[in-house]
Structure formats: structure tokens, C-alpha cells
Amino acid sequence: MQEFTWPGRTAETELAFDLEKAALRREFEQRLEECGTLAFRVARGVLRNVADAEDVAQEAILRSYRRFARLRDPSRFRAWLVRIAFRLALDHERSARRREHRETAWANGQPKATAEDIASSNEFGRRLQLAMAALSEKSRLVLVLTSIDGHSLEEVAELLQLPVGTVKSRLHSARKQLAGKLR
Amino acid sequence: MTCNKYKNPLLLAAACNGKLDAEIARHVKRCSTCRMTLRSERELFLRIDSSLRARVNEDPRPGFLAELRLRVSQKSAARPGLDRVWHVAGAAWALVLLAMFYPLITARQSSFHKNLQTPTIEVPRSSGIAQSGHAHEALGVQFRHHFKRPAIHGAVSRQPEVLVPPDEQKAFTQFVACVARHDAIAQAVVTPAADNSVNRNTELPQVHSVDIADLQLHRGRQEEWISQTGGSE
After folding, report:
1. Which residues neighbour B45 within 8 Å (Cβ) at sequence distance 6 or greater?
2. pLDDT of A80-130, one tens digit each?
């Protein structure tokens, strides 16, 4: 098949374009190892399901790859990816919640779970998930990022481009709110 | 009461997981309720932190990164030039569609506006009036309905307009038809009286100013008149 060439574009410019693209791809792949896990963890902090978190992380990575060339400051890539993953995860969670509402409305006539079922399921985890969903997005993001291993308060502050004091106060208020709901 | 005083600092200390103030520590040593509160609060925060950490630091399944790399390479293998070709083709197709349907749309719009205007039928007044059911149209009189049709600005007719209430339209149409048939009574109503000799009630009697002046009586002449008549009255 003959290669497509834009009118007015020479073979040299095509080659330069391809080389630039290859360089970008290499640069992106170098970051993929670390950032793929980070995106997954951020999504996992929001979503209950591992498979959903993987889907969201994959989508976030692909989106960031599509726009990688447009990123002005490559050193901000992690922060950028974190925000994309967080937002996508929130969207996913909202749509999942809507779906759940629909399904529970449908299944209202179904027999309810027994006490044994509830005890066997991770009740605390479920309540924690609900309490987290009630938090503001800012507090939630801080809570998730500070919970990731190896993320100090300073690193989170740098990722979010916020003063350390703000991160501390958000974290404190988020934990207090969570405890208030779980008490 | 004393415990209430220490409640907030206790919760704060539990949330921060920090050291207790000397005063609070002394109180906690003495008060078993506050000791229990502090312990349960610390446990709660510990549990929150541990379950959050356990969840967030979970690793993706082993094949996840490899799959990601594959997806990225697939994405980069797709020629962006071809994407652009599709964009250009889509835009061109949209233009072609617009060019095809634009005359149709404009024609429909103009016919729609025409339908909105009050219909008028131009019939030269000199021509013989048709013996049709639409005599009012033939006369060049147009009805304006009180409802249903929106007023169109700019659609100004030069013909006289007659506002007819809906319940009188039938009667009015009959009347117009009579006029059209040169019915004598209808003609008499419509045609202004040609004979100027007809005395109209609306005419005022003409009074000359001289007559009015004569009616005025001066004091001197009044006395003279009284003496003449003898002032018997």
C-alpha cells in the first residue's frame, strides 16, 4: 500500500515527523513502568473493584499518551497523569453508582442478605468506601495520594502544587470526616 | 463536666496520633472513660489508615503493564496522518451535504414565512365582481382573525382591513356577498348619500353674528324699553 503523504509535505519532513514521534514514544515508555502503577493505585483508591481500576488506569495512560506531545513541562507528567486517572475514576464510580441504584431498584423485591452474609463480607471496607464517596474531591485526592506507599506529605504537595500546610490540613479534615462517619 | 473539657483535645490527639499534652495525659491516667475513648479513637484511625493503605497499595495483576505497553504501541502504530484524512473527509462530506440541502432548507423556510403572512387576494376594483362564495376577497377586503395567526411585522397590506369577531364572520361574509351582488339595501348602506338636499340631523342651524348682537341689551336701552312697555310686567 502506498504511504499517505500530505500535499506539500516532502519525504524529509515526513521522516522528521516519524523520528520525533518515535522519540516521544520512547520517552513515554520509559515513564510507563512507574506511572502505570501510579495510575492504577490512584484509580484503586477511588474504585472498589480491581478490574475497574485497571480499566481506568489503562484509559488514563492512553489518554495521556495521546496528548503527551502537547505537554509543555514533561516533569509535570506524573501530576498530570494522577489528575487524569483520578477524574476518570470518579466518573467511573459515579456511573457505577447510578447503575447500582438502577439494579437495586429493580431487585427491591429480592430477598435481603442474611446477617451471616453481611458478616462474611467486608463490612468495614464497604462503609469506608461510602464514607470516602461523601468526601470532597480535594480531600479525597489528598487522602488517596498520602496513602500510597513512598508518598510523603512533601511529595504529595509537589504533585498537587500545593503548600505542605494545605495538604496537612486537608488530610487532617478528611480523616476526621471519615472517622465521624465510621464512628 | 471535666471529661467534656478534654474531649476535643483527646479526639485531636487520636487523629494526629501524636503525643498527649501533660495535662490531658494526667487526666487520661485518672479517668477510665477518657482512656477508653482515646483507645477506641486511635483504633478507629489505625483501622482507617490500614484499610486505605492496603487498598491503595495493591499491585495490578502481572500482565497489566505488558498489556499497557501493547496498547500504547498499537496506538502509536496507527498512522496519525490517516486520522487526519478521516477528519478532512468528514468535513468535506459535511460541506457536500450542506450544499445539497441548503436550497431545500431555504425554500422550506421561505414557504413557511409565506404561510405565516395573512393571505390577500389582489383583484382590480374596476373588474366585475365575481359571483363566488369568497366575495369579500373579490372586494379586496381582508379578514384579520383574532387568533391563530401570529402578527408578522412588515406584512403591511394596503387594502382596508376589517376586524371581524369570529361569531360575526358568517354574517359579515353574507353582507359582503350582498354588496358584491349589488343588492339595493346593502348598496344603500355602503354608498354615501349623493343627494345634498337631504337634511341631516347632524347639521347645526346657522346663526348670524348680527342676530346675536341684537339680543344684547344695554342698560340705557333697557330702561327705554321698560318705559315704552309701561313696566307693567
Report:
1. A175, A179, B14, B15, B17
2. 999 999 999 999 999 988 887 777 766 655 555 555 554 545 688 888 888
Nearest chain B alpha carbon to A125: B51
Q: Is A109 exposed, middle or buried (0-12, 13-18, 19+ CB in 10 A)?
A: exposed
3-state secondary structure chain B: CHHHHHHHHHHHHHHHCCCCCHHHHHHHHHCHHHHHHHHHHHHHHHHHHHHHHHHHCCCCCCCHHHHHHHHHHHHHHCCHHHHHHHHHHHHHHHHHHHHHHHHHHHHHHHHHHHHHCCCCCCCCCCCCCCCCCCHHHHCCCEEECCCCCCCCCCCCCCCCEEECCHHHHHHHHHHHHHHHCCCHHHHHHHCCCCCCCCCCCCCCCCCCHHHHHHHCCCHHHHHHHHHHHCCCC
Report the C-alpha gap between B35 and B21 in whole angstroms: 14
Partners of residue B56 in chain A, C-beta under 8 Å = 41, 44-45, 144, 147-148
Contact B89/A at CB under 8 A: no
Is the CB of residue B54 less than 8 Å away from at least one CB of chain A?
A: no
Can you tell me the distance from the alpha carbon of B111 to that of B57, in angstroms, rounded to the nearest whole number? 68
Best of B10, B55, B64 to disrupt the A interface (most A CBs within 10 Å) is B55
Q: How far is CA B67 from CA A35, A49, A85, B155, in A?
A: 14, 19, 17, 69
pTM: 0.57
The cell for B63 is 500482565
- Strand B161-163 relative to strand B142-144, pairing: parallel
How close, in Å, is residue A112 to chain B by CA atoms? 27
Q: pLDDT confidence of B210, banded at 50, 70, 90?
A: low
**Nearest CB to B56: which of A21, A33, A44?**
A44
Mutating which of B7, B40, B41, B52 best tests the A interface, going by the most A Cβ atoms within 10 A? B52
Instruction: Assess: ipTM above 0.85.
Output: no
